[in-house]
Amino acid sequence: MTSTTPMTHETHGPLAFLVSEAAGARSRDAGLLGEGHRLEPGAILARVAASGAYAPVDPAADDGRETAAAVLCAAADSTAGPVEVGLIARDAEVYGARLGWPEGLSADQRAAIADDLAAAGLIVRT
User: How far is CA 108 from CA 98, 104, 113, 123, in A?
Assistant: First the structure.
């Protein structure tokens, strides 16, 4: 019998942004972080359409990066080339105040990113 009890996490450490996730590894995924980024846990990521690699969400982009899709689980450095990363990609709740939001967002852009995450199954809580 498989448990359906959500997992919950502490309020410190790399996953401090995570309120809850589905049992087992259902909420988690792996992906490729495209070259040129140094990111902290909780960074909001989007998938670049042409490559399928992840990059920080960018509301001004038009290549897939404008649509938030996942949250980074651990610090990652792809400045020397793409790296495999762990993601929270579905069936989870995240603390909005602990996410790595892009700088200079308007309230509408922030709401749109939260909506994108909700569409992916990631609910942003305050």
Answer: 19, 12, 9, 17
Q: Which of 126, 69, 65, 68 is nearest to 93 (CA)?
A: 126
Between 112 and 10, the more confident residue is: 112
H or E segment to which residue 119 belongs: helix 107-119
pTM: 0.89
Confidence grade of residue 16 (pLDDT, cut at 50, 70, 90): very high
Residues near 31 by beta carbon (within 8 Å), at least 6 away in sequence: 45, 47, 53, 54, 70, 84, 85, 87, 89
Structure tokens belonging to residue 36: 């040129």
